[in-house]
Write a structure and sequence with these properties.
This is CCA-adding enzyme. It contains 18 helices and eleven strands. The protein is an alpha+beta fold. The mean pLDDT is 92.
């Protein structure tokens, strides 16, 4: 039995980046061997075990062959006879197909270290084209390592185009696709993710609504530069689309509720925010009501941030004005109206009227 660190832990150590999660590979062992040493099996699909003390995952070396559509359409074979090289060749990129033994010796049968030095994201073998999820993964890696100068090899981009043209991307589940999209959007250069999808022909298959939305990439880049949360980044990406297109993308990938809500609100009210200084108090109140700024102030802050990102480094003077308007509306007290005997619909209308007066005064001030 031989145990190796594999994948990202080796890659990031060689790049001088922090290593968080470690994937372990076991060569020359059987399931029975793992049980005998106290390892606990995880799930039923893969020969993966939890270490009895650390709880880290250890996978048996395995081979795979294509047996169906999508990223799950593979048959796996784990055996003590599977070599380290046979396991590594099934991986996506050369920089992810390296291993390191307990003495720190790096095993690199497919040229991962050279590609690290040359800043190239290159597929390991033609089998890359069998897994459509790898299109999203490579685009995500491109976003992650763009600050270091990495780019996708042309041959790999060609295989990604082949996958896009095959229709295999349609076999990806919404949940698995969103997991990659979410991780990519939270990288330091998320616009690179979208650009690589476009260059590979995958964008028109997965998000055709964004094919002509190149202006949103600058806003997405700004959102990353300002370390905005996921919902703001998703809203920046979808800004400018028609409401129906925003809703279609939200539903297609089953985006989290807060992402869906903010994207729809930005799509509907970004123009109002940009014109906030000229907006009539009644229209301003309508927008504040829609955002429920009284109970959900952070959502309105995220909205302002998404609008500001579209302006780049030019600044967004509307931001302070919008915050002041929200504060003026929130300052209206309900208690005096209740003490005056109002309730139900009457109370709601009176409260709305008082808030409108507050906004009129705010605008004049």
């Amino acid at each position: 039995m031989h145990i190796y660190k594999v994948g990202g832990a080796v890659r990031d150590r060689l790049l001088g980046r922090p290593v968080s999660d470690i994937d372990w590979l076991v060569v020359g062992a059987t399931v029975e061997d793992m049980h005998a040493q106290g390892f606990r099996p995880v799930g039923a699909d893969f020969p993966v075990f939890l270490h009895p003390k650390t709880g880290e995952e250890y996978a048996l070396a395995r081979t795979e062959r294509k047996s169906g559509r999508g990223y799950g359409g593979f048959t796996f074979h784990a055996s003590p006879d599977v070599t380290l090289e046979e396991d590594l060749i099934r991986r996506d990129l050369t920089i992810n197909a390296m291993a390191e033994d307990e003495q720190g010796t790096v095993y690199d049968p497919y040229g991962g270290q050279v590609d690290l030095e040359q800043r190239i994201l290159r597929h390991v073998s033609p089998a890359f084209a069998e897994d459509p999820l790898r299109v999203l993964r490579v685009a995500r890696f491109a976003a992650r390592y763009a600050p270091l100068g990495f780019h996708v090899a042309e041959q790999t981009l060609a295989l990604m185009r082949q996958i896009a043209e095959s229709g295999e991307l349609q076999a990806l589940t919404a949940e698995r696709s969103w997991k990659e999209i979410e991780r990519a959007l939270m990288e330091s250069e998320p616009q690179v993710f979208v650009q690589v999808l476009h260059d590979s022909g995958a964008l028109k298959e997965l998000m055709p609504e964004l094919e002509n939305g190149r202006d949103t990439l600058a806003a997405l880049h700004q959102a990353a530069q300002h370390q905005q949360p996921l919902a703001v980044r998703w809203a920046c990406l979808l800004r400018g689309l028609e409401p129906a297109a925003i809703k279609a993308l939200n539903q297609r990938f089953k985006a989290p509720r807060e992402c869906q809500e903010l994207a729809v609100l930005v799509g509907e009210f970004a123009g109002h925010a940009d014109d906030a200084l000229q907006l009539p108090p009644a229209s301003l109140l309508e927008m504040l009501q829609k955002f429920d700024v009284y109970r959900r102030p952070q959502r309105f802050e995220d909205f302002i941030a998404a609008c500001a990102m579209a302006q780049g480094d030019a600044g967004y003077p509307q931001a302070d004005y919008l915050r002041g308007a929200a504060a003026a509306a929130r300052a209206v007290e309900v208690k005096p109206l209740v003490e005056a005997g109002l309730s139900g619909q009457g109370l709601g209308e009176a409260l709305k009227g008082e808030r409108l007066k507050a906004l009129q005064a705010y605008k004049l001030g």
